[in-house]
Specification:
Length: 556
């Protein structure tokens, strides 16, 4: 009898979403097949000056591009699909997702001229697809703050992995079915190798409230504000929230105008695909709101996070072309500030208050993520041998690991991973065996990855200390000074009020050039270094400040 060949191990490699919020991306690799779950982005922190977006480092995927069978998407939020256009520019593989998710992805592909070259596959909740020789993926009905979210059951020769994506258990969802707990229980009975579950709200006790509770709050605010204009700011991708705003507006006989490019795109896509129910003649163009009284309109807009370029922020600063905030306007902030955005949101609220607006933010938002009791239920149903906490900062992952131990999973069976870690797993073992290149790639305008730590350091230096430029003209043959030096200050001192300092700085540069001439130094690099060092020492001695010093030599 020929002995059976031992099965290979499944490799799980997170490239984003662990130890951080956002840019979720996980690689599953078995022998010569590789699939990717989600491809998201994150928004820049305050230290990332001038950066627009942050996406995962895909160096490992570029080296293994021929193995990739496709990208599988759990839902249509930016932190799960936003990185796709940048990924697809490098690696062209098919993408799989539910109808709304693919619809939102297509908007992005259209903007990046990738629609014709990208293969998209619409799947339905309950469908199973085969990817390569090693993977079957089942799309299980889930609940989140956007319709068409799914939990993934990933079958491999090493065993089945259940990946929850972002989820909560909502027994009264605005759209779609309740999360399919029955299917998770079936998988649990058959045997699940590993559970990978959302950790975002693991610190919250109890249950996350149903999305419908927000609908009731909105109705109450609308009824109490019958003689006022109402504005609601929320996430563009929160389709269920937008639905409830439209329903409340219709019930109070108001028209709805949508403001903000991302909000307009999502509403258009969701309504075309049947995920938004918009009663006839309810939606009006933003340019037509002047034809209606204040008590006849509701404005739905972006800007719930205080984003500087979003509609609400521009209104608060009186920079919006079409809408001016008036005393008595009711502004509903239907979102909780993402950690780090509290200050910008507070600034917007202050500006709105100065203009006499009434800001409502109590009970106008519920999370789309499961709290502790919902997580316990998933653990109890799936009964996985191993547990890998995902989607959260380190403290969330650690807390979720503790919850899993309380639910009966041995601590040794719970690897708390970081991005770039390589987890090898089968029925007999589960351990981190190494790392792959990982981290963040910064997107600035059309530039992807051309801004790194050194550029950010320079930007920070310039923003804090300013720039001092020394311009001089030298004769090519002799190296003698023909003109200058001239000193230009940007963000360091106001030249007209610091003429003595500028004159002294010129003398410092002159002496440095004379020293170079005396010592026979004609190499530009050396001259620049000497000028830079002398000028920097002088400025520090005089002002105790360290501007960036930039010598410029012209030759005649």
């Amino acid at each position: 009898m020929v002995p059976k060949k031992p099965k290979s191990k499944l490799r799980i490699i997170p490239l984003g979403g662990l130890g951080e919020i956002g840019k979720n991306m996980t690689v599953f690799e078995y022998e010569n097949d590789l699939i990717i779950v989600d491809c998201g982005l994150a928004f820049p922190t305050d230290e990332m000056l001038g950066i627009d977006l942050v996406i995962p480092d895909i160096t490992y995927l570029l080296k293994n591009a021929e193995k990739i069978k496709g990208v599988v998407l759990t839902h249509g939020h930016e932190d799960h699909i936003g990185g796709l256009p940048y990924f697809l520019q490098e690696i062209n593989v098919p993408i799989y997702g539910t109808r709304l998710t693919i619809g939102l992805v297509e908007n992005k592909l259209r903007e990046h001229n990738l629609l014709k070259t990208t293969t998209r596959h619409n799947v339905s909740q309950g469908d199973t697809i085969k990817l390569g020789n090693s993977f079957k993926v089942e799309f299980i009905t889930s609940n989140h703050s956007i319709a068409d979210a799914v939990i993934l059951s990933i079958w491999t020769p090493a065993g089945t992995v259940v990946h929850t994506g972002d989820f909560k258990i909502d027994y009264t969802p605005v759209k779609g079915e309740v999360l399919n707990l029955h299917r998770l229980a079936e998988l649990g009975k058959k045997g699940v190798l590993a559970l990978m579950a959302d950790s975002t709200n693991v610190e919250r006790a109890g249950y996350t409230q149903s999305e419908r509770t927000v609908g009731q709050t909105l109705e109450d605010v609308f009824n109490k504000s019958k003689d006022k204009r109402i504005m609601v700011a929320t996430f563009a991708s929160n389709v269920d929230r937008v639905q409830q705003i439209i329903t409340a507006a219709h019930n109070t006989k108001r028209k709805v105008a949508v403001i903000g490019r991302s909000m307009v795109n999502v509403v258009k896509t969701a309504s075309e695909l049947g995920y938004l129910d918009i009663p006839k003649n309810t939606l009006i163009d933003i340019n037509d709101i002047r034809r209606y009284n204040d008590d006849q309109v509701v404005l739905i807009m972006t800007g719930s996070q205080g984003e500087p370029m979003a509609a609400l922020s521009r209104m608060a600063k009186s920079e919006h072309k079409q809408i001016e905030i008036k005393p008595g306007d009711v502004v509903i902030l239907s979102a909780t500030p993402i950690p780090g955005n509290e200050k910008t949101v507070s600034n917007v609220i202050n500006e709105l208050a100065r203009k006499g607006a009434i800001v409502v933010k109590e009970d106008t938002h519920v999370s789309g993520h499961a709290a502790q009791e919902e997580l316990k239920l998933i653990h109890a149903l799936v009964r996985a041998k191993y547990f890998v906490p995902v989607h959260g900062e380190y403290r969330h992952l650690q807390k979720h690991a503790e919850l899993a131990v309380a639910m009966g999973t041995p601590k040794a069976n719970i690897p708390v991973m970081a991005i770039g870690d390589v987890l090898e797993i089968n029925k007999n073992s589960c351990k981190i065996v190494g790392t792959v290149p990982s981290g963040q790639v910064l997107v600035d305008g059309l530039g992807v990855g051309d801004v790194g730590n050194i550029v950010l350091r320079d930007r920070k230096h310039l923003s804090q200390d300013g720039l001092l430029i020394a311009v001089m003209t030298l004769e090519r043959e002799s190296g003698c000074v023909v003109a200058g030096p001239d000193i230009i200050s940007r963000g360091f001192v106001y030249v007209r009020e610091a003429e003595n300092l500028m004159d002294e700085a010129k003398n410092v540069v002159k002496k440095a050039l004379e020293r170079c001439e005396t010592q026979g130094i004609i190499e530009w690099t050396q001259i620049k270094t000497i000028v830079k060092d002398d000028l920097r020492d002088f400025v520090w001695h005089k002002t105790k400040r360290s501007p960036m010093v930039l010598p410029i030599i012209m030759e005649v």
